[in-house]
Amino acid sequence: MKASRVAVIGGGIGGLTAAGLLAKEGHAVTLFEGGPSLGGKAQAVTVEGLTLDTGPTLLTLPALVRGTFEQLDALDLLPPFTELEPQCTYHFADGCGFTAYKDLERMADSAAELRPVERKGVRSFYAEAAAIWRAAGEPYLEAPFEGMAGFMARVARRGIGAMLAGLKLDTLHALAAKHFQTHHLRQYVGRFATYAGGSPYASSAAFALIPHIEHAYGVHHVRGGMGALVEALGRAARRLGVTVHLDTRARFERVAGGYRVEPVAEVFDSVVVNADPLAALRRESEPLSLSGFVLLLEVEGRTAVPHHAVMFGGDYRKEFDALFAGQLAADPTVYVCNPSATDSGMAPPGRTGLFVMVNAPAMPVEEGRAEQARREWESDAARVREQMFEKLLRHYPALKGRVRVVGQRSPVDLAARGAPGGSIYGFLPHGRFGPFRRPRIRGGTPGLFFAGGGTHPGGGVPLVMLSGRFAAQLASAHLREVA
User: How many other CB atoms sit within 10 Å of the CB of residue 380?
Assistant: First the structure.
C-alpha cells in the first residue's frame, strides 16, 4: 500500500493506539498532544515518592489490552497485571457491607449476609447480565458502529432470542429491582451506570454487561498504575515511527487533497481526532455525562483500606436527581482506591497513597455560565472535601490524624484539558437506545475519524483502546480507497 500521511490529534490511549497501528502499516504518522504529557485523562502523578493515577484506576478485558500490544509488536513493553480478588468492598449508609468477588459463590455468600434471598438474586442477575453480554455487548464491540442495520445483523447471528432480549431491556435500576430485594444490591448494580457517566434510573439495562465483564474477565491492577500503561503505549508508538509533538494544540481544516493541520501548516491524507467529538459534530448542546472531583491523599503508615472501596450515600435516587439538575449531592457516594494494597511500589515504605472520588455534575459549556461555574468551584471544592473526609473517616476511623491532601482534580481541571464542561465521557447515553446515539468513529467528511471515550464504543481503558483500533481500521480502509 502507498504510504500516506496521517495526523493524530490528541495523545490519549485511543490516539496512541490508532497512531501506532497506522504507523505499523507503513503510514507516516504525526501525533499532536496539547498537553505536556501523553495519556489524555489517564494521567498519573508522583508526589514525594507516592504514585497515584488521576484518571482510570482499574483495568478490565485484559485480553483486549494484551491483544492491542501484540498488534503493536510491543508485548515486551506491556506492564504486568495483577488480578484482584476481592474486587471491591461496598459500605452502605446503614452500616451494612457487601464484597464483590470474581468467584460468584463467594459473592452470593456476601449478598446472603444482607438477606438470604439475595443469594438467589446474585445468581439470577449475573445469568441475565451474561445473556445481555452475548446478545448486545459482544456485537456492539465486534465492529465499528456504523448504524443499526449492521449492528442488528451481528445480533441476528446470535439467534432470535438475542434480538427479543434486546427489545425488552428497561433501565439498569429496573433490572436490579427485578433481581434484588434490598436497596443495598440495587445500589451496587446501579453504580455501573456511572462507568459511562450516567444515572442508573435513566441508563439502559445493557450496562449490566459491565458487572458481567468484571465477573467473567476479572478486575486488574496494572503494575505501576495506568501511567505505566500509557508510558508503554507511548514507547510502542514511537518505536513504530510515530512522530510526537507535545505542548502542541493542533487544529485542522478540510482542504483539497486532505486536511491542513496547524500549527505545522502541512496537509495530511487523513486525521484521527482523539478528543471529545461533540463540538466537531455540532452536538455540543446535548446533555453531558457526569464529571468528578478527586482528592489525592497521603497516609502516614500502611492502612487497611482495600484496593477498591465504595461508600454509598443514603438515597441513591436523590443523589442522581441532584447531579443531573446541575447540583452537588448532599450525601455523595465516595469511591476510594488504595493501589499500594496490591502494588507496594506505588508508595514508599511507611506511607500510603489514596485516590478518592465523588461524582459531580458537568459544568455548562456556554462561556458566561461556564465562567460562573468555575468561580463557584472555588468554594464548592472545600465543601466537597469535607464530605469526602467525613465519609472516609467514618468507615475507616484509623485514618484520623494520618491523612494530608497532596493534590486534587475538579471539573474545572478536566475542562481545562478539553473535556466539555469537565464531563469525563462527554456524550450522555441515557435512554433505551442511548448507546446507539453515541458519536461514531467515522467523521462527517472523508478521511476524518474519532477515537476516545466520547465515541464508540465508550469509556474505560480497554474500550478506548478498541476505539483506537477501530479508528485505525477505518482510516486504513479509507487510505486504500484513495491511494
Answer: 18
For position 433, what pLDDT does the model report?
87
**What is the C-alpha to C-alpha distance for residues 71 and 455, in angstroms, rounded to an integer?**
22
CB 59 within 8 A of CB 213: no
Q: Name the one residue in this structure whose C-alpha cell is 472545600.
A: 382
Q: What is the structure's pLDDT at 166?
A: 61
pTM of this structure: 0.96
3-state secondary structure of 323: helix
Q: Which residue has the cell 502516614?
A: 300
Note the pLDDT of residue 381.
94
**Pick from 339, 346, 353, 224: which is nearest to 301 by CA?**
353
Rounded to 5 degrees, φ, ψ at 146 are -115, 10
As a whole number, mean pLDDT of residues 257-264 equals 95
DSSP state of 134: I
- Find out whether 439 and 277 touch, Cβ atoms under 8 Å: yes
Please compute the mean of the pLDDT values over residues 11-22 and round it to a whole number.
98
Establish how many alpha carbons lie within 13 A of residue 384's alpha carbon, considering only the half-sphere containing its beta carbon: 26
| C-alpha cell recorded at residue 448 | 476524518
CA-CA-CA-CA torsion sign (433, 435, 440, 444): positive
Q: Per residue in 67-83, pLDDT tens? A: 999 999 999 999 999 99
DSSP assigned state of 171: B
Residue 403 near residue 303 (C-beta atoms within 8 A): no
Q: Where are the beta strands (DSSP E) in 76-175?
A: 81-83, 88-91, 97-100
Q: Is the peptide bond before 457 cis (omega within 30 degrees of 0)?
A: yes
Q: How far apart are CA 99 and CA 360, in angstroms?
A: 25
146: part of which helix (H) or strand (E)?
none
AA letter at 218? G
* Dist CA 126 CA 120 (whole Å): 10
Provide the percentage of residues in the chain whose pLDDT is more than 70.
Answer: 98
Identity of the amino acid at 33: E
- What average pLDDT does the structure give for the chain? 95
Q: What does the buried/exposed string (b/e) look like for 72-104 if buried means 16 or more CB atoms within 10 Å of the residue's CB?
A: bebeebbbebeebebbbbbbbbeeeebbbbbee
Per residue in 26-41, pLDDT (tens digit) is 999 999 999 999 999 9
C-alpha distance across the termini of the chain, in Å: 8
Q: What DSSP designation does 440 have?
A: P
Over 326-383, what HEC string results?
Answer: CCCCCCCCEEEECHHHCCHHHCCCCEEEEEEEEEECCCCCCHHHHHHHHHHHHHHHHH
